[in-house]
Design a protein that fits this description.
Three copies of one chain form a homotrimer. Chain A is built from two helices and six strands. By secondary structure, chain A is α/β, with parallel strands linked by helices. Chain A has a single domain, classed as Macrophage Migration Inhibitory Factor, CATH 3.30.429.10. In chain A, strands 2-1-4-5 form a four-stranded mixed sheet, covered by helices on one side. In chain A, helix 1 runs antiparallel to helix 2. Strand 2 of chain B pairs antiparallel with strand 3 of chain C.
């Protein structure tokens, strides 16, 4: 896996939540060579006031509907692939769920292949 | 500390939650030299549909009761120790809480000793 | 951004939550050169029993009101700056919210500049 944490303001419908997860995952498949079955996501709703994003940092106009996406993944993607990933996530969420691109925040945390167990107590990716 | 985030489907009893935390912690004490008092865990329940794990990636048959365990810890454990940790977590959760080993997902995030403060505003592990 | 996850016991007032976030952010501005507008925080309340911190590890007497603060940020801060950050967080939370310094746990996770998108699908910090 990558492990994807998505944090959103409460109030979205189950359909919107499913579409958010789909859009983020499809972007990963499209741009950084994640297998289509390799989907592991934790989506968490938060009350207003508990999810805080500055409304203008770097000149980007963010709303209350900001979406945080933190992706833990294996190290080694190139800068070009990371840029393509950010663009694809924003594009998919705009097209599928109507999310403003300004409201899409992404952070990557890189780890090693041996840092995963996908089940059964085994380090499936370790060489 | 390691800092351990455990994400589960809602509906488990307080007894099960306590046993889950115990089983993960005991595995860390048994296999990667974590002191028995060095326990810091954040356990979060999620509604159905908000915790997404592919039901067959890598040929592992996962259920809706998948458990995500993300452990931030000091860098430097060997691959052998990491493998022992994954096995011990799956074994303990099966024995103590009846969790299917296929449903136990683990991810490690390594940091430096200076990246921790255990209280009082001091970096206790920094040399 | 740094991305700051703050996990607390449920029951705090909105005013306390706002003050907690303010105190942590101000500490980052004061000590590790975070721009004042660069504020991105996810604060999550947890029921009793779901937030577990050993009450005496390293000789620090922790209560049930422990606060976990996990900060993902760009790599490169010196040990001196990190120490100043830990001290400032504990100091601010004591002064502003009455948090016991023993109850303030901090963990840093360092990433690269290219690991962020602050909106619009662009890697604003990548060179």
């Amino acid at each position: 896996m990558p492990l994807v944490r998505i944090d959103v303001l409460e109030g979205r419908t189950p359909e919107q939540i499913a579409a958010l997860g789909d859009g983020v995952h499809r972007a990963m498949v499209e741009t950084i060579d994640v297998p289509s079955l390799d989907r592991f996501q934790i989506i968490t709703p938060h009350a207003s006031g508990w999810l805080i994003a500055d409304p203008e940092y770097l000149g980007i106009s963010r709303s209350k509907d900001v979406i945080f996406i933190q992706i833990t993944l294996n190290a080694g993607r190139t800068l070009e692939k990371k840029k393509a990933l950010y663009a694809a996530i924003a594009r998919n969420l705009a097209a599928d769920v109507g999310v403003r691109p300004e409201d899409v925040l992404v952070n990557l945390v890189e780890v090693a292949k041996e840092d995963w167990s996908f089940g059964n107590g085994i380090a499936q990716y370790a060489t």
